[in-house]
Fold this sequence. Notes:
By secondary structure, chain A is mostly helical.
Amino acid sequence: xxxxxxxxxxxxxxxxxxxxxxxxxxxxxxxxxxxxxxxxxxxxxxxxxxxxxxxxxxxxxxxxxxxxxxxxxxxxxxxxxxxxxxxxxxxxxxxxxxxxxxxxxxxxxxxxxxxxxxxxxxxxxxxxxxxxxxxxxxxxxxxxxxxxxxxxxxxxxxxxxxxxxxxxxxxxxxxxxxxxxxxxxxxxxxxxxxxxxxxxxxxxxxxxxxxxxxxxxxxxxx
Amino acid sequence: xxxxxxxxxxxxxxxxxxxxxxxxxxxxxxxxxxxxxxxxxxxxxxxxxxxxxxxxxxxxxxxxxxxxxxxxxxxxxxxxxxxxxxxxxxxxxxxxxxxxxxxxxxxxxxxxxxxxxxxxxxxxxxxxxxxxxxxxxxxxxxxxxxxxxxxxxxxxxxxxxxxxxxxxxxxxxxxxxxxxxxxxxxxxxxxxxxxxxxxxxxxxxxxxxxxxxxxxxxxxxxxxxxxxxxxxxxxxxxxxxxxxxxxxxxxx
Amino acid sequence: xxxxxxxxxxxxxxxxxxxxxxxxxxxxxxxxxxxxxxxxxxxxxxxxxxxxxxxxxxxxxxxxxxxxxxxxxxxxxxxxxxxxxxxxxxxxxxxxxxxxxxxxxxxxxxxxxxxxxxxxxxxxxxxxxxxxxxxxxxxxxxxxxxxxxxxxxxxxxxxxxxxxxxxxxxxxxxxxxxxxxxxxxxxxxxxxxxxxxxxxxxxxxxxxxxxxxxxxxxxxxxxxxxxxxxxxxxxxxxxxxxxxxxxxxxxxxxxxxxxxxxxxxxxxxxxxxxxxxxxxxxxxxxxxxxxxxxxxxxxxxxxxxxxxxxxxxxxxxxxxxxxxxxxxxxxxxxxxxxxxxxxxxxxxxxxxxxxxxxxxxxxxxxxxxxxxxxxxxxxxxxxxxxxxx
Lengths: 222, 252, 389
């Protein structure tokens, strides 16, 4: 039945936080899996990402209802619009994570020397996880300074992933030119690592929207 | 969901003017039902049928039934005065009696025999004022005239006066249209509290108010009931085009 | 109002301002004319009436003895018998009776002078024989003639002896009559207004009643006198000339006014109060008696007092029911014959003696004072009840 405005906003925030954390958890678990080479963990991390679409629809409809019944203005309105876009971003981040897990776990069976690769991919993954984790934390924040600081942190991690990916790309392409018969595997790894970079992009987008909700101005892509 | 008020085929004529055309509606217990619609659509007329206030006007002809607690209130053996004791009404313009705050609330219950003068009456006055969210503001000046309060306070006084008579249903005819936004907000919060104990029917020409407080909304147009549904449905997915046009502001 | 550079220049304004000035002039001059009539009237009354507040007294020697009881005129010196009031002479035996110690004494007392002497002393037209006039001049030189405050005017009733005439019996008669009028017209008038305004259906019948009541207020008052004569005196057999009959007749006259003003007062009570009352499940009686009536009360009071003030000044109908008679003693009950102040004034105005002129004027002033006080009470009561709401 009907709830009042405060209750509805709180519900939406909680749901988005929960949904976002699922993606964070999936990423963390997959990192675990890579470090310990545990296939089971891969499966578990993937299962975190089930039903993301369903959760997103639920939140979107709740936002729709809140807009219809309470006609929010100013910060409340910005928050509603931000949340509406954030659900999409989280779903895409989830898809990116899923694809990373799928492709990376596939290439684990190949004959590639992973020691070298992991040296670079784990920092990339760490940066990506930190980005998305920090971004989701902003949902529950209220202090403008804290939000701005977290936003900067996300941007830093995001540019880290850009740099790290560029390095890995160079490295792997060099290796690929030496071991051409493993080129498919190398390309698989590359494309899966690219997904991690995309997750960081989504995180930056989410953080940008949350800053807009808090501080105002105009909507613009991160 | 229990039905508190069952309206069956209600028709009303002002002289020759057929103002309400066969209204059928179920109003549910302990819920807030809003009646919306453009000016002159019959929503206030309909509201006043529920407590038989239209009987006070000459030339009014009413056909149909309004069944409350399994009794049609328009039956010959029902006294309209007793109907109004169980169904209270709050009006658009706050209209406290020109007496003290205490007297305003105490008068009707004493006349109905609910309490006698003295301690039980004092308790009833206090209880009603607390329920109306006015006690803290007036507890030190109960002997001041009711008209010395601000507009929002006067309206809450009228609400306290209405619930002192211990009704089941509270009808409100545009209760906040004469008030400022802060007082309006206080009274809307009050409504959400009151619905725990009472069934509330409110006429409002402010759609957003209906969206904020009502559980169910009925849309009237030119004497017809066009659509009646949960408020969420009316405002997100109205089924009738007329409803949609009104909600989006395309007419009225 | 310069043009060219002035964007606010409007040529028609000059005419409009001139027209407004003319209107203002007419309004003020009407006011001035009305006030001057009032001033003229008041000053004329004061001029004629204030002398009535003083009466001439002469200091004479009175012998109180047996001879005085048998023939009071002998108690006073022969030369002074004609200049002293007849009423005083008549009272001498009673004085001795009340105070036996006066027996066989002679006293120097100030007693009332005859009305012609009084007029002479006050400088008006008089009818005195020459030797009486000389005697008075002589007494004046001796300081034995003085003008004192005329309390007799307020303690005596009417009298054939001008210097002994007062307004008291008329005042009491007016009060008694007014009491009867209030007792009858107020309850009936207010109840009628309540019924017509709150309970009656709005149909042709009640509209006809309303028109007729309004017409009643416009009927010449003397016709009410005829009505009173026919019904109260002839049909019911009530005592003629009594305050009861006079009061009832005036009640008939005041009733339409009370009904009309009470209705207006009731109508002015906002309908929202009644709606609130009905909404709480109150019956019509409860709503009207406890909520509408207290609010309408100031208006009803004002209307009633104005109607009564008007009734107090009515003469014509009371003449018909016989209250024009000569009433020297104050009435003690409403069934005794009485007169009222306007009637008394009318009677005095028709008397031949010169002394009655000032009494008439003083009577008018007394009546005016009573009326103004009634109106002041109306204003005060209205203010007092209005602050509550």
